[in-house]
Every structure is written in structure tokens, then in C-alpha cells.
Amino acid sequence: MSSTGDLLRKKLRPRVAAQGVSVSWWGAEADRLMRDLFKTSFDVDVVLREVTGVQLTAEAALQGMEPVCLPFLLGMPGEARGLFTMDGALIDAVIELQMLGKVMGMERLDRPITAIDAGLSEVFVRAALAAFRAGPAGLSGLTTLGPQQDRAALRLALGEGRFDVLRAQIDLGPGIKTGACSVWVPAEAARVVATPRKPASAAMKAVLDRCKVDLTAQIGGIDVSALALARLTQGSLLPLPMSAISEVELRDCTNAPFAQARLGRLHGARALRITQMQGGQAGAGAAVPQTPTQIAFEDGDIATKEPAVPALEKASDMGLSAPETGALANSGVEGEDPVPKAG
């Protein structure tokens, strides 16, 4: 029969702190990574005395930061931010290895961190981040944004999220120096990205190959006054800006834009060349024409260089000229260009 004290102890049992994906990875790989890092960068053998990983809020992690340390703000895809810190002893050791080729067995002077310290230490930070590329996506996506010693600015940059704080204490020689570094990884970013995605099955790929999707090429829009709109009749001419001719936006069946294209001519018919996807990757061979009126494709069998906007001898009663219009065409499709004739 359990006593009242036993029941209270079970209810008050401390909760196990949450651990992110990068914490378990750090515990297994930190020793090998850091020893390889120092051997490759400085040809020095080191020993890791302590390796820890814990998930903390940004506020708690900043409160536990060493009084004398050099923090480097880290960026990753999106707006998430991380941190890489080096304590004073590790900063001195890294500088001595670069300047003297060895670690000096002297105590660190009580002095503040300088800009020269930051510049020489950034080499080590970049090498460490490169060594982390084999880790979870939360670590492999980190890049240095430079040193940031203003604690208030760090508080704003890191926000209110939780971080996997990965720390290593490094012995740089028996009785010589022992320094420490840590890397802070946004816990949610590491956890979400680490979930593997299942590749599409062969049956699903076959279904997608047979699916038809509506594609719309939008050549821009214009603003007209209410009076001009009321005067529109059959045969009226409306202008399009030159940018609408050179840049075309592609939209999917949900009317969501997903690519930019350039208008040109292929085998006598209008055609589009993809110049940029929604993610920002430019299409191969895409080039912006030198002038808006010289829109043409030049590689392969696409070699037409005629003006995209024909000159009109006379304008409509609105005093406007009309650009050539056309439809999205496949290569080899012949068709007429419905160019309005000036009266």
C-alpha cells in the first residue's frame, strides 16, 4: 500500500526536458566533429571534456551565456536565427593557432573582446558551420551573419522561441588551455525539417503524368478612367505598357502565380520562355532583352528578332497605340497574330 509521501513524490516527479533532433545528434557526433575540425584547420589534437545539449528558451539561454564570450549571429532559410558562441579562452587559443601555430600555456588576461578578435575568430566559426553540414537540417542550413556583442540586439534577433543549445568544452592540451563553444539551433526548425518526406510512388507519378492542368499567361493590366471606359466601342484601341510585353506572369488553375516568363516568337507563333520560378531560380538560358521592343529567343531554332510592338500609323480616338497580342503557343504551331489595323 502506497503511503501519502509516495503518492506526492510520484505526482511531483520532475518532467524530463524536451530534446530536439539536433541534441541527440550532437551527443553522438560532437566528439568526432570537433576533433576533426581542429585537426583539419590547425593540425592540433584536442580532447572534449564535456558535451551537453539542452533545449531552452531564448531568455534562459541568454542568461546562462558566459560574461566574456563572442557571439556570432547565425541565419538559416527563412527568418529563423541561431547563435554560435566562443568563450575567452577559446578565442585566445584560435588566435594563437593562427598567429603562432601553437597554443600558449598562459592564463587569459582580463580584457574585453575586440573587433580584431572577432575577425580572426570568424574563420573558426565558418569552418565549424561547414563541419555541421552532415547534421540535421537545422544545423546544415546555418550561416554566419557576423559577430553581435550587443546582448539587447541579440534578444531582439533571437525572439521568443526555444533553442537546442549544444555546448562543447575543449581541452587544447594538458594544462595549457580549456575553452568552450556552443551553437544554438532553433528547436522547431530542426524538428520540422528532420521529418523525412516519402517519395511519390510510381503509380502516383503515372497519374500525375496524365493529369491536365489549366495554365494562364497574364500579360499585365492597365488602369483607365471611368470616362474612357464608357467611350469604349468595337474597334477601340487600348495601350499596354512596355513592361507587360517583356514580362509575362504564369498562373496555375487556382490563379496563384508560380513563374515569370518572357514573350517571344517560335516558328511564326507566339511562345513563352520561363525566366524565373516562384522560388527565385532563373530558368536556364534566360536573358533579359536589351530593349523592350527587341523581344526574341536566340538559342536553338528560335531566332526571330522582330519588334514585339508594331508601329501604328494612326491612333484611335483615345490617342493610344495598341501592342501586338497573341496566345500561348507550342513550338511548331502556326497561327495568325490578331494585330489591330489602324484606320
Give a verbal description of the structure:
The protein is 30% helix and 22% strand. The protein is α+β, with helices and mostly antiparallel strands. A six-stranded antiparallel beta sheet has the order 1-5-6-3-2-4, with helices on both faces. A four-stranded antiparallel beta sheet has the order 7-8-9-10. A hairpin with a 6-residue loop joins β5 (162-171) and β6. α2 crosses α5 (115-131) and α4 (88-99) crosses α5 (115-131). The protein starts with a helix and ends in a 66-residue tail after the last strand. Residues 191-195 and 280-343 have low confidence and may be disordered.
Structural class: alpha+beta
Helix content: 25-40%
Distance between the termini: 105 Å
The proportion of residues in beta strands is 15-25%
Average pLDDT value?
74
Radius of gyration: 31 Å
Q: What's the overall geometry? A: elongated
Unreliable stretches: 191-195, 280-343
Could you give the count of β-strands? 10
- Count helical runs: 11
Order of strands across the widest beta sheet? 1-5-6-3-2-4
Largest sheet: 6 strands, antiparallel
Succession of helices and strands:
HHEHEEHHHEHEEHHEHHEEE
